[in-house]
Amino acid sequence: MTTATPVISSEMQGVMAAGPPSSNMPLLRQVGMAGLALVSGLAVVSWLAQFGQVNLTGYLKAEQNVVYAPRSGRVLRLNAKSGEAVKPRQPLMQLVDDVLEREIAAASLEMRSLEAGLEQCRAKADVQISQQVESLDDKIHKTSLETAKYRRDQFSSDFEHKILRDYARNSTSNPWQVAGPAMLDHPQRLFGAVGPEPVIIPDDSKVRAIMKREDAKNAAEVAKACAETCENHIQGLQRLREALPDKIRKAAGVDVAEGRMALAAQQLTALQVQKAELTIASQGHGIVGEFRKQPVDPVIAGEPLVMVLDRERPFIEVDVPSRRINKIKVGQPLRLEFSDESFTGRIESISPQAHRRDGSEETWIPVRIGPAGKLWPEMPIGSAVSVRLK
Fold this sequence. Notes:
The chain is of the alpha+beta class. Helices cover 48% and strands 24% of the residues. It has a 6-stranded antiparallel beta barrel. It has a 4-stranded antiparallel sheet with strand order 5-4-2-7. Strand 11 and strand 12 (363-372) form a beta hairpin. The longest helix has 73 residues, at 98-170.
């Protein structure tokens, strides 16, 4: 770096050449020259203190989040203005896709048609289920009555068999009085007719009693078998009643209609998700930049629509003369002046390429400065900031 020679004013040179003031010089003039010498000395000292320091002007910027079009269409309306502060998920722009709108309308119409067909199938199935269930309930009721009759006959035959068995068994070991044929036809009367003396039963009467006993036993077994058959039939009817609604619904086409409607609902939901993507929203806090599209303008998928400046990630961009670029490095702290208030920044990057401006011979290199130390004040994006570079 070339050392600059301090420049001394001509008045100061005259004072130095004239030497100390003579005693004949007026006092007022002596005081004025002394004050002038003091001011000049302070200026020289200040200049020497700041020797080698350059004040540059940088500009406050922020990270840019570019929002792209998710699909082709056209701009319906703008929901924000350039320079407006926005929050996360706040709508910025509304797009519309005419082709998508027609697909959604067709899918909605198909959904309504399938829903009507499904309701018709369900109504037919409900009618058939009601009729079939009523018929099955009637069969179950009749079979239950038959079961009860068979159980009653079984109980009666079992009771008769036990009476005849005991009657035949006791008649072989005890003296009995003679019993008439009427008693043998109705053995239960014997228990009420037996007096203090036993009844004597002839041999042929015993044979007939034994045969009646066997008939009663067989009748009880038949009644039991019939009752069990009826009970099994009732169980089968109940199982059929439980499975009947599903079978009738399948026969009426309810399952097929429900499957078609579910598929149509999935397709409609997918189309509605695509439509929701046409609402362009902010991804975070920031400032809306310039809209690249206006209402009615066509949009191509992947095309940039708007830029949102992230105020939570500010930085300063300053052009540094290329002849002084070797005096700075990445990570070096710098002093910044925000509205006459000092803050600290740190060099984050130095561009590898220089450029010219205003047609001058001087070349400049962009340097990015990030926050360091205490938080920077909130200022409009693009505000000028003084950067002190030693």
